[in-house]
Amino acid sequence: MTHLGPHLRHYGPVAPAAHPGSSTSPIQPKLMPPLTDTFEIEDFTALSDWEKFVAGFEDILRDWGVSHYHPPPDPAPTNATSPGVPWVWRQTRREIRFMDCGFWVTRFLRTLDVADDPPTVPPPTRSDGSVTPGSRACQSLMNGENDFPCSAHPIYYFYGLDEFIILSPQGTEQVDNPTRIKMVLGTLSVAAHNTECGIPMFIQVMQRSQAQFAGLCVNDRFRTMFEMAVLPKVPSSCRNLSEILYVFQEKLSQPLPMSVRGCRCTLRRTYRLEDWTSHAWTQAPPDFELFAMFGGQLGYLNDLRQLPFGAGQDPVKRLLLNTTWPGLVEETVLENDVHNDLDPLEAPSWSVSVQFEEQPQCLLGQYLRQFVKVSENHESMLRVLGDFFNQSDYDVDESVDNVPNALKRLTGPTYGLTDIIKSGRSRRNSNQPGPIKDDYLFKILEYLFPDSTDKPEFPYPQDFGSPSHRHNENFNNFRVLLSTIKSCPVDGLLWRFTIVAAHCLHILGGIKPLAHLMHEFMLEIRFRWENGRKLPGLPHGPPDHSYCLFHQKLQMINYCIDRKLARESVPNQSNEEAVTPKNDENSDEEFFDCDEDEEIEVDETKTNAADLPIWNQKPAGRAERLGKTMLLHHNDFMYVPICQEPAPMTDDQLAEQAEILLQLGSDAEGSELRAKMQSASLLSDMESFKAANPGSVLADFVRWHSPRDWIESQKDNGEKGKLSVRMMTPGNAWAEAWESAKPVPARRQKRLFDDTREAEKAIKFLTSLKPGEATQTLMPTFLHAAIHRLLLETLDNVPNLKDIISTVLPVLARLARFSCRPEVQHYSSETLPEFDTRTNLVRDVVQRLSAAEIKLSQALSLRAKFTKDVNFVKEKAQLDDQEQVARQMEDFVRQLYSCPEVKVVGASRGPAGQLIQKMFKEAEKATQMITDDMEAVTDAPLKVFPAPVSREYIIRVAVPRPFPYSAKSPQRLYVCIKDKEFRLAGAFTLDKEYL
């Protein structure tokens, strides 16, 4: 039964037509039920999965605008590696699926355009409007300018194509059997014919690591098949150029035999150098033993005064020398099992590339990571040091044994480092040695406290901000950014302590030596405070809030020592005045300079000294006269009093005070208490002013202390001014303080700044820090020292390194402004969001500095290799060319670092080529263990280069295929021979005209 379609009914057999002339009527057809239960209906007009796959691929080509598109030939082909040509690779990717397997369709285009998507180029047309046969792919196959490009896509490297489309499976899927490969190639072929797209198309086959492709290119006249094979070993029939030419000619002789002549061959040999011998560049970590023996006079390599820098192993892994013979005719070169014309010293073109270690172990990076790791440790000093640590060492010792020390303090004794160490250890009950050897500890303390020796080897600079500490131009270039870091002065006490702490962590065994160093450092601080000896390496004056909190605490201790010494140097006059009665005739009078013709204008309305209370008639504590300013209600000049200096505070004290004032609230009682806390210094100044200016009133004090609150005016009643509105408000803090103030000079007042209490608070803060907490507080200083170490090197030859430093410095400045938990835990238990922000910024800075160190180490290693023996090259050059040779070598090193492959000017005869020969020769001598004496007595010349690690061949020819009368079409074969890889990549073109 014939299938008439699903919309028709099924009928029974149709009766034959009546015979002409018969009277019998035809039999009417009988309606029958559907036969759906008997068979199924299959619709062959529906699309299959493969047809949907092809249609989807064609839609992508149409969306990209490459249907009916035949790329025109390049007007002026240029190598991708040519200098000054901004060639870029653009790619566009789309997704397509075949059943349950996903594919990526990616278009690659090498272009000068920098648009996000590859540009759509309209196809060239003839005068009659028809499309000309595309020839860009054919031209690229025959273009010798694109041979052996560096850092290129494998297809561009194997075939020289600058535009192509790749169909690659997603995920772990692989097109790894012949059936799948043929099916996908069929998809490409159908799509190329249906869309008339002349762009070469490829499918990625086998494992991705093999970079193996198969593809085709179809245009109006030619069809090119791209074939590739990758084998683990070299076939016996493809070991040299002669055998490869034979295989290539045999391939072109199919399907019809033909004579192939005039093949052009481009050959390359690659030699590898990994043994640098005398040209290796490695940096040894600092050595405490050498530092203790020689006093640090060894430069930066073994100097504990700087953080280390450089790689423990050479960051340059290997050097690859590529010797190339371009465009040789097959008859002019011979390479077989018997003879080889390819001498690398005679190669017309040399190029060099270097490979760096992926993750070189650099010294500064190790220090940075270990410092950050220890900052996360929460062990206490007692847990780390055990019996060696005794908390009583930090406490104030008030025993009788300290009486001689107190007496010696009056005579100013001298002491040495031995006394310092013994002073801390005398309190210990055990003689257990510490983690740091005594010799090392003695040298470290001498470095930190050079004033303890008669002839210090490491004195502190006189001026921490002097330009002499900017060692090179890098510090001038980043001077503004460096000044924003809140750490400490360069080469100051805290700077040195931070660097030595990092050395103890990395060299002496970790956190235990660090804890021991902190213990001895705090003992020295306690010793100096008790004996009135200032800490060296700190700027003078009160704590500077532009430095970190740790440094502010050290400055506070030094400031307290200054105040203590100043207070003890002044005799106690109050006791003498209380015991010995004084009369006006024998008492010392205070005199001040004045002009000879100057007279005091006596105002009868003002009081005189005799009218004042007897306890306030004699002035005290005058510093100087305030010009010709007179008191308002007393016939006397106004004098500036000697006042107590305001109490300095560190950052944590300011934050603690602000928090306390905030917690007082806004009610009347809280406001009154807040006003009293803030008016302590004001009350002291008022008492000093009253003592220096008997008969003064509040208006006199305001005229001196707050001139803006005094309004000058001249009235008829003789008044010269009045107080401001806020000063005349009843019950204001100034008026109440003035009423309660007594005329007491500053020396007799209660101290606003208790140096003993503040020094003990600062020492307690430092001694309570755990080793991990100490590293957190020292982190800005440590990172600052790391940047300082990088800036000691030359950054000009390293691209983007200055940009990295410029980016890191603002991050470090922001990091240093945030507080860490140890800095606030003594007055606040709240977890602040800035703690986590600071931690993240620390990790970011460490990562960037480690990357900068790697870049700089790589550049310095190359510089050491190619400029160390520059005199060897200069000697062979003429006198006039020596300066040019030096510049040429500098440019060569700079390009070698920034470019993936660098052409050697002059090949083997150029200055760089001669130096490379010397490197290979030394490595060969080291491999064969040949000394200079053995080489002198050997008749046979020493081989310069080892066996090549890879041999590459590119063979081209244009021949008519498949028939002798066909148009000439490009044929190309790429061959790569390595130790464990053999690769063939062929492009074979046929003329479609007679197929």
TrEMBL record:
Highest taxon of source: Eukaryota
Which cellular compartments is it found in? Cytoplasm; Endoplasmic reticulum; Golgi apparatus, cis-Golgi network
Q: Which residues form the Rab3GAP catalytic subunit conserved domain?
A: 617-766
A cellular component term from Gene Ontology for this protein is: endoplasmic reticulum
Q: Name one Pfam family in it.
A: Rab3-GAP_cat_C
Rab3GAP catalytic subunit C-terminal domain segment(s): 778-993
Which residue stretches belong to region Disordered?
Answer: 570-589
Which GO molecular function entries does the Swiss-Prot or TrEMBL record give?
A: GTPase activator activity
| Key words of the record | Cytoplasm, Endoplasmic reticulum, Golgi apparatus, GTPase activation
The protein's matches in InterPro entries, at most eight in alphabetical order, are given as: Rab3GAP1, Rab3GAP1_C, Rab3GAP1_conserved
Q: Which PANTHER family match?
A: RAB3 GTPASE-ACTIVATING PROTEIN CATALYTIC SUBUNIT (PTHR21422:SF9)
Q: Which family does it belong to?
A: Belongs to the Rab3-GAP catalytic subunit family.
Name listed for the protein in its UniProt record: Rab3 GTPase-activating protein catalytic subunit
- Species per Swiss-Prot/TrEMBL record: Tigriopus californicus
**Mind giving the lineage of the organism this protein is from?**
Eukaryota, Metazoa, Ecdysozoa, Arthropoda, Crustacea
